[in-house]
Amino acid sequence: MTENDPFLRDVKAGLSQNPKCISSHYFYDKAGDELFQQIMEMPEYYLTNAELEIFSQQSEAIIQSFEISNTEEFELIELGAGDGKKTQYLLQTLLEKNFKFKYIPVDISKNSLSVITERMQNLFPNLKCDPKQGDYFQVLDQLFSSDKPKVILFIGSSLGNMPDGIAAQFLHKIAAHLKKNEKLLLGLDLLKSKDIVLPAYNDASGITSAFNLNLLRRINRELGADFDLENFEHAPEYTEKEGIAKSYLRSKKKHSVFIKELEEYFDFEENETIHTEISRKYTDEILQNLLKDSQLEITRKFLDSKNFFADYILTK
Ligand code: AVJ
Question: Which of 39, 55, 241, 243 is the most buried (most CB within 10 A)?
């Protein structure tokens, strides 16, 4: 038993807890990455189109808000670069306007990093692209030895997967890496009604359900478990009052699951859940609270035409 495998350790801890939980961080194996790509294309998942609209229509104003002149060299650092569809608009406008910059996508996954790098270099042969693989903060430590001005991108409402306390710590750590006047462009999904949010996490075609259940498939494959996916169902929840979409896997009946790598059985009651994800929805006030004592200030806010999503410019 390899107890130092973080996946094994977290699955053991999470399934031993009451209520059970496993981090959404583990959704993203190869199949999970592909399912997330499909999620971004579904009609119910409004987040991607809303932020794409902001980037495609307001990239000039976004760039102005960076307060960097096109004679000065700077570094554009993207945390968790994803597929780059949104960033593409920003890069295109920067290149058209002759800005002098290096694009530095940062990701823990070598695979997604090489996909994005290839995509950007095909689209923009003149782009200076310098991908960095690794943990965000380890990479930021390395990058901040250079004295070029920096803009950090953290888009797609990825912050929403963190509980508020962790999100605040994360923003404080980023702030600690910025110098006076440097910026963080933070993309956040805004608080809105249940009839819009819940379907985004409970689509009619069942892709989100497959995405959630894929976590059990991953545990079966990587940890030798015998989860029968038929015994679980995707169970999302959202109230506008709390503003947090939550996903669960709910056991349809009382049964046990064996995990070979742990040599341990885990018991499920009928209707017992494994909590797998939170997706926080924000207001200016919620963000202000996270930013308290961080030295970051909201200096601009870009909205889509439906006011569903916001890209905030935070300045140190
Ligand atoms: C990638 C974290 C923004 O929470 O909306 C989509 C992930 N989960 N559908 C989100 C996700 C279920 C997504 N983020």
Answer: 55
Q: Is the CB of 38 under 6 A from ligand 1?
A: no
Amino acid at 5: D
199 lines ligand 1 (CB under 6 A): no
* Residue whose entry in the numeric block shows the structure tokens 């209520």: 19
More confident residue, 1 or 62: 62
Question: Relative to the CA of 82, which ligand 1 atom is closest?
Answer: 1
> Using a 6 Å cutoff on CB, does residue 157 contact ligand 1?
yes
C-alpha Rg value of the chain to the nearest Å: 20
- Report the C-alpha dihedral over residues 309, 140, 295, 61, rounded to 10 degrees: -40
In contact, 185 and 178? CB cutoff 8 Å: no
pTM: 0.95
92: helix, coil or strand? helix
Q: Residue 126 CB: number of other CB atoms within 10 A?
A: 6
Burial letters for 78-111: b for 16+ Cβ neighbours within 10 Å, e otherwise? bbbbbbbebbbbbbbbbeeeebebebbbbbeeee
Q: For 81, which DSSP code?
A: -
| ipTM of the complex as predicted | 0.98
Q: Can you list the alpha helix ranges (DSSP code H) found in 184-293?
A: 194-200, 207-223, 284-291
- CA dist., res. 182 & res. 66, Å (int): 8
Measure the CA–CA gap between 56 and 50, rounded to whole angstroms. 10
For 208-260, how does the pLDDT look when each residue is reduced to its tens digit (9 = 90+)? 999 999 999 999 999 999 999 999 999 999 999 999 999 999 999 999 999 99
At residue 12 the predicted structure's pLDDT band, cuts being 50, 70 and 90, is: very high
Q: What's the rounded Cα separation, in Å, for the pair 229 and 34?
A: 19
Average pLDDT, the chain: 95
Ligand 1 in contact with 156 (CB < 6 A)? yes
Tens of pLDDT, residues 153-208:
999 999 999 999 999 999 999 999 999 999 999 999 999 999 999 999 999 999 99
